[in-house]
Structures are given as C-alpha cells and as structure tokens.
Amino acid sequence: MSSVRVRFAPSPTGFFHIGSARTALFNWLYARHTGGTFVLRIEDTDKERNSEAFLNVIYDSLTWLGLNWDEGPKVGGSFGPYRQSERTDIYKVYLKKLLDGGRAYEKDGAIWFKLDGERYEVFDEHRKKTVTKVRRAPTVIEDRIRGHVERLEDEDFVIFRSDGNPVFHFVNVVDDISMAITHVIRGEDHLSNASKHVELFKAFGTSVPEFAHIPLILKQNGPGKMSKRDQGALIEEYQRRGFLPEALVNFLSLLGWNPGDDREKMPVAEIVRLFDLPGVNQSNARFDEKKLAHMNMAYLLELPAEQFVAKAREFFERQNVATALAADTGYFADVMRLAQPKVKAIDELPGYTGYFFTEDFPIDEKVKAKVLGKGDPKARLREVAEALPGWDLANDTAIEEAIKALAAKGGFGFGDYQAIVRLALSGTNVGPSITGMMRVMGRERVQARIGRFLATA
RNA sequence: GCCCUCAUCGUCUAUCGGUUAGGACAGGAGAUUCUCAAUCUUCAAAGCGGGGUUCGAUUCCCCGUGGGGGCGCCA
User: Fold this and answer.
1) Distance B34 C1' – A424 CA (angstroms)
2) Distance in angstroms, CA of A236 to C1' of B67?
3) Rounded to the nearest 5°, which phi and psi values hold at A183?
4) pLDDT for A130
5) How are beta strands A139-143 and A147-151 bridged, if at all?
6) Which nucleotides of strand B are protein-proximal, with an atom < 7 A from a CB?
C-alpha cells in the first residue's frame, strides 16, 4: 500500500450528479492506480441544506458505479468520524490553534481567518462598500494539472459562522490535515478557493497537499457547466434507465482524461492501470449523451446473456411493465435473448418487445397499408398458416429452410413472406428475425396470430 | 467590474518544433441481412485572430478574442 491518500468529499444537498461522479471516479482511479487509500468524507456542515435522503443517494450512486471507499461512513477507518457534523470537537481544537497563534479573530459574531500583512481600507466598486484589504504577495498554488498558479488572497474570510458552525474552507483544510490527505483531486471550480486553503495550511504549519484541479463537465447544450437540472445530469437517472455502470464509468473516465492512444472502450481494470494525473486534460469537456449511449450499447452487446436477461427482468419489474406472459421466466428470457443484439439500451426493451407479452398488441396502420399494398401478401400468409403444422420450430435454420422451400414452390423468395409474417406476429415492421420470433412464440401462438390477422385485416 | 483558468473536426480527443494533423461519437454514401439494428467499407469535417522566437510552428512567448470558473457567515 502506498502512502497516497485521496478523498471524495461531497455534501448531501441534492441528487448526485455526473460532475461529482467524475470527481469521485478520478480520485478512486488515482487511489487504485497508486495502491493508495480512497476516503469518503461527508461535508454536511450546512445543516439547512443537508438531508439524510441525499446522503443515501451518495452511498447508492458510488456503490452502483463500483467506486468503493476504503475509509468513510459505513466502513469506518482510523481517521474518523467521516461526517463533518460529527467532527465539531476536532474543529474546536484546530480553531484554538489559530486563535492562540493570533491567526483568527472575532467580528460581527463570526470568526475570521487573519491573513498575514499590513491592512488598508479601500472602496470596492463592484460590491459597493468599503473593505479591509491586506497588502501581501500572491499565494502560490503548485497544481499537478494546471502547473504554477498564483492568486492574490488579500481579504480575511470567515471560518466560523455566527451560528457557531464552521465553514467549508476551514473544515475542508482541517479534515485534509487530520485525515492525512496527500492529494486533493477536485473540480476546477475550486481553483480560486485553493489560495484560501493554501493560506490555512500554512497557518497550521503543515505541508500543503498536492493539488490536481480537474476540468469541468459542460452542459450538452447552452452555456455553463453541467448542473443538477440539466438533461442527463443525475446518476440516479442512469441507474433507473438500466444503464451499465461500467459503461458510464468508461465514458466518464474519457471526459478529461485519455490513455494517450486511440483506445476508448476499456475494462475498468485497464483504466486503473493507465490512469495518472499527467494524462488529465486542462480544458473543460462537453457532455455528449450520444457517445454515452454508444458506449452503453457496446457494453450491452457483449454482456453475457444471463446477465442481460437479469438486467431486463429487473427493469421490467421496476417499471411495472411485467405482464402475465412476462412472468414466464423461460419465455421472458428467450424474448430478451432475441432482443439483446438489437437494442441500444435496456429501457428500449418494453417498447421493443411489448407484442411478445400480449395478444392485444397494436397494428401499425401505416406499415399495414404499405405491406398489403404490394403483391398479394395475404396469400403468402395463408400458405404459411397451412404449412405451419408440419414445420419444425425448434431452431431458426429449420424455420428459414421451411419458408424458403415454401417460397420456392410458388416461385417466390424469403422476402415475399418476411414483411407480412412480421406484421401478423408483431404489428410492426421492426424487430428481431421472424424465424427467431416464430421459434420463441411457438406454434400455437404463431398460428393464432396469423389466423387472427387473416380474419380481421 | 476584479481575479484565476482554458483554446485541434459539430462533440470527446491524439500530436510532447518537422505528420497527407490520427482515432472515436454524431452526420453522408455504399456493402451485407428477412425488417430494424449491429457489422464492414467509405466520404465530409479542425489547429480562434494578430504579433513574435525559430531554418521550421497546432506545438514555445506576448497581445487580443472567445469559452469556463471564482469573487457568501453555500459547499
């Protein structure tokens, strides 16, 4: 085990979104790559906005994505507790250090961090008020991704609110010190805060951790970074829609990082092996749901059939679309196996396979008009209905051969039967092969559907 | 307004001074197939602008411009 200790420090103030997931992922990847420790810390100092429900969303989402934490809530560790709301004693100790060292003072009921340097007053045009500034040199941030960054931190800032609760900058730094965090990997939106943090680290007399400010994920359309309200922003949504977590992880890893060559689809173990800070980009990346969908499809295609069926079963049950017919697990599995190579996502399944599970499926009138408008398809269908009792429906090739033989007799081709049989069995013109459909539906159901179609259409 | 940061096809990106600027998604065309997908082939598509440095800049520097972030007793 290396000495690397990274942390993911979300606050449970809303649903877990894709930017947070990516930050968690990069931290996790770095920990796993270096053989270090991945710490989960809950930053719940804002009592007004925190909720227990959102806390569970964080645990669920991380678990679903496979980002297991070595220390943190639920698993414990020797640097706990891991929820900031339970660390108030630690914060008091650290505050006392600052107070005793003359690096903090009280004003307006709050406690402020005192920067070193000479003070002077100036009118701030933007904020329309007089502020006290400190004459001092810019703070230097050595960032593993950004390089050398300088920023002038010239105003004291609040570290304890007047209600007695510590603020983010303070607890963040204190916890990083007390949890022995070595690498701070977080979004670039914190780069401007980093100067405050560096000053705090210096005031505590501790070494500053390595910083790595990763690029942000921008919303797909329009300006700005991805926020909770944007389309596709919530991890929970992908979970609900039956996306494969490994596909999402693979996609997310490529947003702001690359292995240095053309490889894109990689098992997570390979990403862990290749991931490193120098491979992280500096520029923001725009979220692309089409590419995610493609990645998901690629993973879905190679998923072992049993797993695909299980995923489908879970989705059908959760969406409450299971019918009496779908309750037949053997039949359900056969249908799903037929659909696996054809769909791009699990949530397409109910729509794509609906007609398998009910006799009351709709007939697409446009398709019907088109199919019936060419030649005499109903005659072909009648031939199938008559020949069907003698066919072997055990496998697709046998069915295909039977249809071809039937076609040859009348001087037709397979194609003259395909569309009309499909229409009679499914009511539409898209779907799995008709041979597969016939095999899975079975003789009785096929016979009944063709008969009904012939009688009514 | 001030501060920080970034800049290659529509999008994600490769290139660490010398390449016909490569790949992937999306888009077009074709092949294949029982439909639709998938798959295969193929086409179109990029170095923000201006100055430098250099024999040579997408690559290094500066200035613009544009994007992003920050400027709370939120995190």
Assistant:
1) 14
2) 29
3) -130, 125
4) 84
5) antiparallel
6) 1-8, 10-15, 22-26, 34-39, 67-75
Nearest CA to the C1' of B39 belongs to which residue? A341
Q: Which nucleotide's C1' sits nearest to the alpha carbon of A417?
A: B34
Structure tokens at A103: 């690096």
> Which nucleotide is the nearest neighbour of A301, by CA and C1'?
B38
Nucleotide B73: closest residue by CA–C1': A161
Q: A23: which 2 tokens?
A: 């930050």
| A46 pLDDT higher than 80 | no
- Per-residue model confidence as pLDDT tens digits over A75-110: 999 997 999 999 999 999 999 999 999 999 999 999
Burial class (CB in 10 A: 0-12, 13-18, 19+), A157: middle
Q: How many CB atoms lie under 10 A from the CB of residue A438?
A: 25
Catalytic residues of A: 228
A336-380 residue pLDDT tens: 999 999 999 999 999 999 999 999 999 998 899 888 887 889 999
Model pTM score: 0.93
Distance CA A177, CA A101 (A): 17
Whole-angstrom distance, CA of residue A118 vs CA of residue A131: 14
Angle between helices A168-178 and A88-100 (to 10 degrees): 100
- State both tokens at A317: 């049950």
Asked whether A213 and A272 are in contact (CB, 8 A), the reply is no
Which residue bears the tokens 């698993």? A75
pLDDT in tens, A10-34: 999 888 999 999 999 999 999 999 9
